[in-house]
Amino acid sequence: MIHGSCMCGGVHYEYTGHLGTMTVCHCSDCRRAQGSSGVVAAPIDRHLFRWTAGEDLIAEYESSPGKKRAFCRRCGAPLYSRRDDAPDILRLRMGSIDTQIEATPVAHIYTVDIPPWADFHDELPRYDTHEHGRY
Questions:
Q1: Which of 26, 91, 114, 123 is the most exposed, having the fewest neighbouring CB atoms within 10 Å of its CB?
Q2: Which PROSITE patterns match (predicted)?
């Protein structure tokens, strides 16, 4: 089981399923939403995810048509994103996980948007947009 929370501790969740393929997204929306060079996220089964505290603190912002980004309205910590066209999937923000997990990102995506100050020098595959097979 995976446990997670927001920065202020008002929101807590648990997830009983398996994490999907973890990627680092560098699109301009993710950079702005995270305030960093990208976001590490993994798809999860929405039906195996549940709030254990603070569900009333969750707010969603529609960052593009059909895409919502969820965060704690008290501290602003990002928690997940979701798409209207994939209602059973949440893209969990790995920075919100409290449990130690054995997982690493497998690719950088939307690398066409990486600014010069955020170039990465690792061996992960890079995709101009999304990786093949992503929902």
A1: 123
A2: CENP_V_GFA
